[in-house]
# Entry
Amino acid sequence: MNPQLEKLHPYPFEKLRQLFADVTPNPAFTPISLGIGEPKHPTPAFIQRALTHSVQGLANYPSTHGSDPLRAAIAGWLERRYGVPPLDPATQVLPVNGSREALFGIAHCVIDSSQQALVICPNPFYQIYEGATYLAGAETYFVNSEPARNFACDYAKVPADVWPRVQLLYLCSPGNPTGATLSLGDWRQLFELADRHGFVIAADECYSEIYHGSAPPLGALEAAHALGRSGGEHPYKHLVVFSSLSKRSNVPGMRSGFVAGDAAILKKFLLYRTYCGGAMSPPVQAASIAAWGDETHVIENRAKYKEKFHLVTPLLRQVLDVELPDAGFYLWADVRRSGLSDTEFARRLYAEYNVTVLPGSYLARSAHGINPGENRVRMALVAEVDEGLEAAQRIVQFCTALKASSH
# Structure
């Protein structure tokens, strides 16, 4: 067996299952889960139609490279969304079966395990980054998110002797679970480091279309273009961007996303994925073309999230330390006012009010003396507005009862 498998941690939801193993939730309440970041808004009917009307495509083997119309649809969306020059659909765009498999695969494509490679990850983080690192034969170096920086990571704190070993840097903007977004200054710093040390930046942007203010978050390709890195002999050097339809279009079961950016990296990644058998089925390609070509449903979807967050956040702020994030569909709440740890908070809330949240310590690792997820919980506001409000009201009741019992 591959010895690297021994390094893998249980997935956060397995830890949660173990935490709840001997708990019987209060039957007076119907269950509400804020634990898993799975969109619950309805899938738009036009996407469903495009999928079902294309089932004749199942008679053909799909190309790993994807169809010309799909790559063109993705390139067109990137140009419209980020204001970047037209990307070459043939060399700078690659459809993938959801961003998850591609984020995992990129590590196996770019890491040279003979060189004591390091992969930089944010902390807390999406656990795929860590698993991909270990199974590619590298080690992780975690950069903690900092509440004082609106949960951004401070890459200036990475020791100088670490950077020469770095071959890949994962980042997530907007972040999971914090919702933090990178600024142009952050991108300038990272591009300078990538140029100096030659590592690849893997930018996970699957939450880019769910934001709570008027301005969309800055994208990696957009930042590169603003900094003069979208042209010349090597456009988007060192940068590959990952995105998905799952959150944007409420189709997590369709498993459809893309990678875009540095053509030299994508050429190697296409070779890697050809051997993995990672081709997208023709019906999913047809539905994806429809989804990337329409913004009306995305605007409507975003409005639902805005309504939820602007109703729920002030309620929860009465009893927890929590603020509206930059973007994404998570609230990253500090539970210390409750007097409970993050795990005990989650366990008792489930037992007493039948609401599931995810302990923040399950989403992070102890690094540099702390676990930055400790004493926080992640709440995924993915259901419809009424259910989100009901969950918030139960959490307020729970915290109020805790406070009363402590006096």
Summary: DSSP finds 13 helices and 13 strands in the chain. The two ends are 55 Å apart (CA to CA). The chain has two domains: 3-42+297-406, 50-293.
